[in-house]
Amino acid sequence: MAQVDADQESHEEHEEQKPKIATRFMLFTAVPSWLISLVVHLVFFLILLTIFMPPVKKDKRTLTINDSADAEEIEELVMEEFEPIDEQTLEFDDPPEQPEEAILSDEIVVSEFQEEMAATQMVELSDFAEETMPFSDIMSEVAGVDGNATSGRGQATRTQMLRENGGTGASEQAVVWGIQWIAEHQLKDGTWSFDHRRGAKKPGSKDWGSFGDSPRAATAMALLPFLGSGITHKEGKYKKQVEAGLGSLIKLMEVRGDTGSFREQEGNMYSHGLATIAVCEAYAMTQDKNLLGPAQYSINYIQAAQDPVGGGWRYQPRQPGDTSVVGWQLMGLKSGHMGYLSVRKNTIAGAIKFLDSVQTKNGAAYGYADAGNKPSMNAVGLLCRMYTGWKKENPALQQGVKDLGARGPSLGNNSDMYYNYYATQVMRQYGGPEWETWNEKMREFLIKQQVPQGQAEAGSWHFNGPHTERGGRLYNTSLSLLTLEVYYRHLPIYKASASEEDFPL
């Protein structure tokens, strides 16, 4: 009986569906045949497109921060020393101590590189274009060492250049400890601050800088000693710290069109020059395409910010220049030169025009914004002259080096590390007895003035000289390290004879 009822209900449902089916059939037959054909072909086309279309690849627009590394890995990172120096020829005063663990205890987050910075699509790199610095000028050979101007930073050549150019095991150990201090004061977001208390791992931090809101300048100054010793985001014992620092610095770049600015309120164009040097050196050392866009954009900004009348740079874009700011911008352009980036000839010609306007003693001395004779500006001006083509035999260069040698390094508690940094580069590039005398005084002073291991702020330096109030211990430590890295940081401009002009004119 139940089966009969079920059959009856099924028959009734079927009878009810007949009108609906008939209606749908009528609608279908009412559709024109051409429309049915179009729909069928469209569906078939979409199926074929899905089968044969290659997968979409995402553009790499970011400087990746160790995709495979998590916060736990970074916490376990051990800050080891550099590769061992040849102890048969370089003796340490004291045996190296075991460094402590790194402080990066949280995951470092760096936002994606801005859309308009796609290097391979928006910046055309040409090694041999007319507007690009000549390849031959930045190639060098030192006792069988070939490469660009940063080639001395590699482990294979650093020991050789350290020994041949006046470094010692003690000076290199000071570099090891100084870089460790900088690494210990990196913030969790990858940046550094001149107010280094914010990232201090150890208690008792002191002598911080007042410019606590200039992350671009502080991060750049922190990165330069790593790069100066051959440590990049690709290799080296501190590559995670460098990678995080570069990523955070690029995140802070402000892009407009084909220019990228690192200028900030406290550091103004100083910040931009320093950051340009850091990014361009990292690119020159690694040829990482993710750095090509930021490096070229920072060079473009320097060129756009140049004073169109006097040829210099100062605090604001296109403002009449001063020698101090000009020095950092020109070194930024030089760093771009090392990476074969595009630097316009008229930019260098403008910088030379500015240097001519502030020189005295036929070019042996330099003023700040007007013609003068100020020791720190003399050092900046002479180094700029070396990099813009003055030959070693130039009488003004010879006189300038003689004057720097007679004055000697700035020593004591009030040491001016800005002057020492630039002047040491001038004397190192010039070489000879003047350099040997200068180097012994400068090197031994810095080794003795470094805070010893076991004390608060171990590995750092602090002097009461110019700019210290703003930059504090990080500023002094960075310049001290760069001064002690002078033996291998750049290959010599002058070889057996005078070099050709380094920048195109």
Characterize the structure shown.
It is a single chain. This protein is mostly helical. It has one domain: Glycosyltransferase, CATH 1.50.10. It is built from 17 helices and six strands. The chain has a two-stranded antiparallel ribbon with strand order 1-2. Strands 3-4 form a two-stranded antiparallel ribbon. A hairpin with a 4-residue loop joins β5 and β6. α9 packs parallel to α11 and α11 runs parallel beside α13. The protein is globular, with a radius of gyration of 31 Å. The relative contact order is 0.11. The N terminus is likely disordered. InterPro entries: Terpenoid_cyclase/PrenylTrfase. It comes from Bremerella volcania. This is Squalene cyclase C-terminal domain-containing protein. Keywords: Membrane, Transmembrane, Transmembrane helix.
Give a concise summary:
The chain is mostly helical. The chain has 17 helices and six strands.
Strands in their spatial order, largest beta sheet: 1-2
Global Rg: 31 Å
Q: How much strand?
A: under 5%
CATH architecture grouping: Alpha/alpha barrel
Q: What is the helix content?
A: 40-55%
Can you identify the CATH class? Answer: Mainly Alpha
- pLDDT < 50 runs, ≥5 residues: 1-9, 17-29, 51-146, 496-501
Average predicted local confidence, pLDDT: 78
The number of helical runs is 17
Biggest beta-sheet profile: 2 strands, antiparallel
Number of strands: 6
**Secondary-structure element sequence?**
HHHHEEHHHHEEHHHHEEHHHHH
By secondary-structure content and strand pairing, the structural class works out as mainly alpha
Q: Any idea what the shape is?
A: globular
Spatial gap, N to C terminus: 108 Å
CATH topology assignment:
Glycosyltransferase
Q: What's the domain count? A: 1
